[in-house]
Design the sequence.
């Protein structure tokens, strides 16, 4: 169960359908809170670098990773093997690729050879195009690459990705629940772990995503807001809630 933290330059933000970024706070302070709540894993995605062809701020990444007591993944602005290496050296266990995976899929294979497939994650951001067909997008949800998420997931697995994050742009920040049908389609098409993201509003949504085929679940708004009214409150279910609501229902 993975909180997703969105960096926009040095601040922590949350989006709705990949737009309208709202300031949440300082990422280092957020890490301290999530440490106390014994979070399983965290994803840090730099939405500024993704959209504006920026480069990772490795000094900031090292500062964030230095506060973390849990495994962490980072994505945003990674374009080369050297970027992958520096991200791992900054203290992150996983490197998340999106635009670079689509433009230069050999980077997925090269990264897996360098740091191991388990550390190379491809994030498939997708939404329906103007024809109503689901398509994978890059560049922070701005560029349609003309591929169905299932086809892109298979391609990335063939290139050596060790994990897929399936993120529904249309549901991002909406509290409408996961796209269960797409989770089922993609998880049935690949043999690597699938992390579902986009739309979670409750632990019940987590259960449904796991039942649909997700190996893990990720969420942003649910972990940074008090409710759908969007009052900022970093939160995470207790061990008791997980045992009683998530694990019992999912299994």
Sequence:
């Amino acid at each position: 169960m993975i909180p997703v933290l969105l960096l926009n330059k040095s601040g922590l933000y949350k989006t709705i359908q990949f737009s309208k970024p709202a300031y949440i706070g300082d990422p280092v302070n957020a890490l301290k809170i999530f440490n106390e709540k014994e979070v399983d894993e965290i994803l840090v995605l730099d939405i500024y670098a993704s959209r504006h062809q920026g480069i990772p701020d490795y000094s900031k990444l090292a500062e964030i990773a230095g506060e973390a007591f849990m495994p962490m993944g980072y994505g945003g602005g990674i374009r080369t093997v050297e970027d992958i290496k520096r991200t791992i050296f900054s203290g992150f266990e996983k490197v998340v690729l999106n635009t670079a995976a689509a433009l230069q899929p050999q980077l997925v294979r090269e990264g897996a050879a360098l740091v191991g497939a388990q550390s190379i994650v491809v994030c498939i951001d997708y939404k329906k195009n103007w024809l109503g067909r689901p398509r994978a997008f890059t560049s922070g949800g701005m560029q349609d690459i003309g591929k169905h998420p299932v086809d892109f997931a298979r391609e990335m697995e063939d290139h050596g990705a060790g994990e897929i994050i399936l993120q529904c742009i249309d549901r991002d920040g909406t509290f409408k629940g996961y796209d269960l049908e797409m989770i089922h389609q993609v998880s049935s098409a690949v043999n690597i772990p699938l992390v579902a993201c986009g739309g979670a509003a409750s632990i019940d949504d987590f259960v449904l995503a796991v039942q649909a085929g997700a190996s893990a679940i990720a969420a942003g708004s649910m972990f940074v807001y008090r409710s759908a009214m969007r009052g900022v409150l970093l939160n995470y279910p207790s061990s008791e809630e997980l045992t009683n609501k998530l694990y019992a229902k999912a299994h």
User: Anything to note?
Assistant: Residues 3 and 219 are 5 Å apart (CA to CA). The chain is about 40% helix and 25% strand. The two ends are 15 Å apart (CA to CA). The mean pLDDT is 94.
